[in-house]
Design goal:
The protein is about 40% helix and about 25% strand. The chain has helices spanning about 1-15, 20-60, 75-85, 135-140, 145, 160-170, 190-200, 255-275, 285-295, 310-315, and strands at about 90-100, 105-115, 120-130, 130-135, 175-190, 205-210, 225, 275-280, 300-310, 320-330. The radius of gyration is 34 Å and the shape is elongated.
Length: about 325
């Protein structure tokens, strides 16, 4: 009996008093709050690391609008410049503005300048995770591109009445008018022949050259060409090492014009190999097959887009190389 009393007395003595229990609870609450605060701080730190470290690093793996690999002009401008020169006879890319809209995503404002120098306009576009999409205006065929007779086989039979109609229109235009026209050649001509033709008419500016880049029995859509003699084109200084004739400013003869066209195709193919393309013509085989064709068959032209006076164009129409002239634009020369 005594032992039991002693045990009970000891147990009662070891029980914490009420104020000590409160202290324990307070300590536990403080520890819990400390754990919560530490967890929140760690989560915030991880978020900051993710936002300012990991996410930007991963985003850099994609095509960024602010990349400048070739000097003062962005990679985006270089890509769009090559694209418009190949596929749009009427306009060249002058500048690209962009707005970051999300992870590796941008809204684009693409500034275009007409090859005749008569118009500038802006169109929209978007860049999202290496996929560049542009306004349909850039991809649609222009009237200049549609004016060539010998794009594909079977070649249409020339209607003399059409030629007579064009001649009559030109004869009625006053001398202060300037015209844009598509000239179709009777047969494909080399760059040497084209340069010689160009030098015969110093007051006729060739703004775009249609190039035969596939077998004429199969139409390659879109039709492609180049503008090596249009010196208002932008300059990409840093391109010289990888693509010596990418810049039209480096083109001074027929051989260099051929190299310029090949450089546009090679650059575009290399861009796609990096996982970067411009829809809808973002298929590597388009550029690769065109390169193979011109390497085997030469860089040959079936027509050109020109700018000149009505009187001068009447003279050009009588050249032995020309089979048809299609008027595509006219404006008053204020200079």
């Amino acid at each position: 009996m005594e032992d039991k009393d002693i045990f009970e007395t000891q147990w009662e003595q070891e029980l914490p008093p009420e104020n000590e229990m409160k202290l324990i609870r307070r300590t536990i609450r403080k520890r819990n709050w400390r754990i919560i605060v530490i967890s929140v701080v760690l989560a915030a730190a991880l978020l900051l690391v993710s936002v300012f470290g990991i996410v930007p690093a991963v985003e850099k793996l994609y095509w960024n609008a602010d990349e400048f690999s070739y000097g003062k002009r962005s990679d985006l401008e270089a890509a769009l410049y090559a694209y418009t020169e190949l596929f749009n006879p009427g306009y060249t890319t002058a500048k690209v503005n962009y707005r970051h809209t999300g992870f590796a995503s941008y809204d684009l404002e693409i500034h275009l300048f007409s090859r005749t120098g008569q118009e500038s306009r802006s169109v929209g576009g978007s860049l999202s995770r290496n996929q560049l999409e542009v306004d349909d205006f850039i991809n649609n065929r222009t009237s200049a591109q549609n004016g060539f007779l010998r794009k594909t086989i079977p070649f249409p039979t020339l209607d003399q009445a059409l030629t007579d109609s064009v001649r009559a229109q030109l004869e009625e235009l006053p001398e202060y008018i300037r015209v844009e026209a598509s000239l179709s050649f009777r047969e494909d001509i080399s760059m040497e022949e084209l340069v010689a033709f160009k030098e015969e008419y110093p007051y006729m500016w060739i703004t775009w050259i249609a190039i035969r880049a596939t077998d004429p029995t199969t139409e390659w859509t879109p039709l492609c060409g180049m503008s090596p003699f249009n010196y208002s084109n932008p300059v990409f200084d840093g391109m010289y090492k990888d693509y010596p004739y990418f810049n039209p400013a480096n083109v001074h003869d027929a051989g260099q014009a051929e190299q310029h066209f090949k450089a546009l195709l090679q650059y575009s193919a290399d861009l796609i190999e990096k996982g970067r393309g411009i829809a809808p013509y973002d298929d590597w085989e388009i550029y690769h097959n065109a390169l193979e064709y011109v390497e085997e068959n030469g860089v040959m032209s079936y027509g050109v887009v020109v700018m000149t006076t009505p009187e001068y164009l009447l003279e050009v129409m009588d050249h032995e190389l020309i089979s048809f002239v299609d008027l595509t634009d006219a404006w008053i020369d204020l200079n």
